[in-house]
Amino acid sequence: xxxxxxxxxxxxxxxxxxxxxxxxxxxxxxxxxxxxxxxxxxxxxxxxxxxxxxxxxxxxxxxxxxxxxxxxxxxxxxxxxxxxxxxxxxxxxxxxxxxxxxxxxxxxxxxxxxxxxxxxxxxxxxxxxxxxxxxxxxxxxxxxxxxxxxxxxxxxxxxxxxxxxxxxxxxxxxxxxxxxxxxxxxxxxxxxxxxxxxxxxxxxxxxxxxxxxxxxxxxxxxxxxxxxxxxxxxxxxxxxxxxxxxxxxxxxxxxxxxxxxxxxxxxxxxxxxxxxxxxxxxxxxxxxxxxxxxxxxxxxxxxxxxxxxxxxxxxxxxxxxxxxxxxxxxxxxxxxxxxxxxxxxxxxxxxxxxxxxxxxxxxxxxxxxxxxxxxxxxxxxxxxxxxxxxxxxxxxxxxxxxxxxxxxxxxxxxxxxxxxxxxxxxxxxxxxxxxxxxxxxxxxxxxxxxxxxxxxxxxxxxxxxxxxxxxxxxxxxxxxxxxxxxxxxxxxxxxxxxxxxxxxxxxxxxxxxxxxxxxxxxxxxxxxxxxxxxxxxxxxxxxxxxxxxxxxxxxxxxxxxxxxxxxxxxxxxxxxxxxxxxxxxxxxxxxxxxxxxxxxxxxxxxxxxxxxxxxxxxxxxxxxxxxxxxxxxxxxxxxxxxxxxxxxxxxxxxxxxxxxxxxxxxxxxxxxxxxxxxxxxxxxxxxxxxxxxxxxxxxxxxxxxxxxxxxxxxxxxxxxxxxxxxxxxxxxxxxxxxxxxxxxxxxxxxxxxxxxxxxxxxxxxxxxxxxxxxxxxxxxxxxxxxxxxxxxxxxxxxxxxxxxxxxxxxxxx
Length: 813
Fold this sequence. Notes:
By secondary structure, this protein is an alpha/beta fold. The chain has 33 helices and 22 strands.
């Protein structure tokens, strides 16, 4: 089983920062730093909300309770007012003084006194920020490591809060302020980082330190890297919180809206903790999948199990192998992090291992069930039955599939299938089957007695879904003359659990997949293959049990055939899941009382996994779909999770393909329909849910246009357009990793100061720059939904007579 240290995450661990993907480049080099400078928000401090502006909505909630805000002003309305108030304050300050940095007090002067008490609202904002903020343990670890080396530490922030207000927030988040030598804030210094001014001011405090010996770390390239460079200071980009198109969290937002907003930054931090493992790219993808998706889902299951253990007084649990390979250490770690005493002892059991032991007799129904298993071979049939071949010679056909035996004729003119059927129904065959049933039952009950003392008192834990193994266990111990007193806990349960409960079983599920069930439960039950595979180790399912000469009974397990690469990827995912648990415990402790445990909201905590199943990224469909799956019930058949199907199934398009996946496995056997569709039509599902989320607005059109740009291999464009819509397109291009150097805005003068990383230009200047560069023809992104003919004509006219013919990208449905 994967073994990870149970030591909690701590900011005082002076080596923790070396495990951070972005900070690890400094390993062995901090002695060369003479001054460490850190950005504050989204670098040193993280928030327990999806977006910084969510703080404003919480201010309104609390202000309503305290009578400081009129009740007719909703939290969302106040949030929008607060954002607009800041924009107005900055505009006024720029007009009045020439610089746009403002204070919190200036912002609240723009809030009408009639809607609430501005002084109280401003005071509450600092308090709410403190409630939401926590220190990034990676950056704090580096800070303390530098202080141990007697390296001074400065904090620099482009922020409307004062240095005193920031100190209160930092102290509330748990930072030892005695370790901070200097704190500079743009609201007090009247200039920010992007211009280089704040860094120049920093250098005034440390004139004896050479600029190249100063290192600044921050999340914003323009402010923290380019701004630092203007002052001759080295900047290290720290994009842990940064959102972009390929981000798992963006895809979750498109499918579900904000998912686990309180935990969003924590999940991103855990995903950035992978450097120490030295992973290859595929392993890194799966490690992050463990921290971001598998970890949250399985830890929720662990917390739910622990809650029940507390309620029921349970001190020992028995997760079913093979999933217990990961679930057992996660249960152990969850209990330890929670301070609980819990013994976790896996039980080696499976559908095949319980099949014969759970029968009262072997009749026609049981035989028909086995003979209809797809791909089952003659040898595999006799293996699961435990019946010898001395009365009938099938030696020549052992490796033949049962289905093929229907068409193979023996010496006496009968088909091999008929011979098999008649042999197993004969008196001799039935006698052997009865003996096999008794032997299987004795071995299984003996194994349970040997390992657990009371075979009738297990507390099983499983992913789900039908309760087949659980029902078989209870029947087996009952047939052995014992009264079952078992408790069965499943992550997801189907309607069949209701039937089992009617039979007297205590079987419970965290999520329900049948009628009245949750969307996540239904999707997980439909497509469990890669979840199960990522939880398993390098051994197969339990086939049966054998007794040695000393009377010890041991499980016999199937052989697995996996590549070393696949094993390594699974292990990386499992380590990621275990890492997530430690980061979860860190934040839960940091925000004691403010955040609820995952088990309180299992449906919400299942959404990351549901999103992957329902709307996978192309990379996820590729990596997860290439995993192999072995069912191990009677047959050793192994297949890719996304096994190829005939091209004809795709010809009618993605929607028709997904509909076809409803056919029975004998017609079209698809484990993961959405994964298959994404591998063939990479962005179909994303586009579909983007349209739904946007109410069939312009977002899908913008996305389609940007996809065309990227498909053509273009990474840098000029933007042509005006107003809020053009700004929206500009930000979307950045979000997709495209570079917009120049914005040609017909309504803005070319010498206007830009608000972002671009320059305003005229079409004439754009032509001159293109011709001077000597490169290929420029590409223009045309941002308009109205001037569909005018704007392209203007661009082409501006380039008349030039050797360069611009490439135009327009938003088209």
